[in-house]
Amino acid sequence: MAALEDLDKLLQTIPGLEVLDLNNSKGHGCKSIVYDGLYLFIPPLVLLERRNPFESLQSIKETEMKDDDVIICAYPKCGTHWLWEVIEMLKSGVIEYRKETKETRMMEAIFKDGIDAIPTPRVLNSHLPLRMLPKQIVEKKVKCIQIVRNPKDVCVSYFNHYRDMVQPFGFEGDFAEFTEAFLTGKLCYGSYSDYLLTWKAELEGSPAVPVLDLVYEDMKHDPVKSVKDVARFLGVTATDMFCEEVAHACSFKKMKQIDKDRKLGIPVGIWREDAEQTFYRKGEIGDWKNWFTVAESERFDQMWNKKMKDSGFKFSYTPF
Question: N or C end of the chain, less CB within 10 A?
Answer without folding.
Answer: N
